[in-house]
Specification:
- The chain has helices spanning 8-15, 44-59, 91-102, 112-121, 131-141, 145-170, 175-188, 197-208, 211-214, 216-232, 240-244, 248-259, and strands spanning 69-71, 78-80, 85-86, 268-272, 275-279.
- It is built from twelve helices and five strands.
- It is mainly α and 280 residues long.
- Helix 3 (91-102) packs antiparallel against helix 4 (112-121) and helix 6 (145-170) crosses helix 7.
- The strands form two sheets. A three-stranded antiparallel β-sheet has the order 1-2-3, covered by helices on one side. A two-stranded antiparallel sheet has the order 4-5.
Length: 280
């Protein structure tokens, strides 16, 4: 999301004007849109490419960034790790607890009490961590393979698995559509809020029916529209400024759909926030 390689959020700030236009979905013959046909709907290569795409959207690189950590001033405290685990809603707390259960003497263990307080209060105030020390500790912990594996496991449990369940219920079968729901799960979460993935799926079904009823291309294009509308007008006002800058992560996937690559066959190029990335 940058001309060269600035931080994810720095590029988002400069990309707001460029991401406002929603592109149409070109018709693709149904034969070009087969089911992914694997466990969880994605083969290992398709899952890897979905992870690379999300890493591009989250951190402007195809390399997963376990050590990323910063306060992006979106009301969620510090955002950190491969999936943007935040300090205000318990996401980061669950990661740090799981890591501490495996490695009790780790750089992040001392932050558990304050992470518990922030999660209970839903607070984005990071002064009590304190923020700078927490960020440094997260980066240090990311050098540990065990911490990286904990992040992977949390992503599977909290984001990938729920997204695949939502895809199954909506009748979504293609790798590209499943990758889009996975990306939405990462950004929007899987709770009961208006902005969460289940609500986005429900609103899409309300517009066009399930994927089985509408056809997957029609359903996916409607989901793109619903998600863009939510990013532009989120129910949570604290996220509004950042989310409005992030619309191109949806349009990037719509551009892939327009090429007909519903199977996420690689290698291919994805353009996001004005930069090109090769997905192997």
């Amino acid at each position: 999301m940058r001309p060269t390689a600035p931080s994810r959020r720095a590029l988002l700030a400069g990309a707001a004007a460029a991401v406002a236009v929603a592109l149409g979905l070109a018709a693709v013959p149904s034969a070009a849109v087969p089911s992914a046909g694997a466990a969880d709907g994605l083969s290992p290569d398709q899952r890897r490419r979905a992870d690379q795409l999300i890493s591009v959207f989250e951190n402007s690189t195809t390399e997963i960034q376990y050590g990323y950590a910063e306060n992006i001033n979106d009301g969620r405290g510090v955002t950190a790790g491969r999936a943007g685990f935040t300090t205000n809603d318990g996401d980061a707390l669950k990661v740090v607890r799981a890591y501490t259960a495996q490695v009790p003497d780790n750089p992040l263990a001392r932050f558990v009490p304050e992470l518990e307080r922030l999660a209970a209060a839903g607070s984005g105030d990071t002064g009590g961590l304190p923020e700078g020390e927490y960020i440094a500790a997260w980066k240090e912990a990311a050098q540990d393979r065990a911490f990286r594996q904990v992040q992977d496991a949390q992503v599977d449990q909290r984001y990938f698995g729920p997204a695949m369940s939502q895809a199954d219920r909506a009748g979504v079968s293609t790798a590209l559509a499943r990758a889009e729901l996975y990306d939405a799960s990462i950004q929007h979460g899987n709770g009961t809020e208006y902005d969460a993935l289940p609500a986005l799926v429900a609103r899409t079904n309300g517009k066009v029916g399930t994927a089985g009823q509408a056809g997957e291309q029609v359903w996916l294009d409607a989901f793109f529209d619903v998600r863009i509308d939510d990013l532009t007008n989120p129910g949570n006002p604290d996220t509004a400024e950042e989310w409005r800058k992030s619309v191109d992560r949806v349009e990037a996937l719509r551009r892939i759909a327009r090429t007909g690559n519903y199977t996420l066959d690689g290698p291919f190029t994805v353009t996001a926030f004005g930069a090109d990335y090769t997905i192997a």
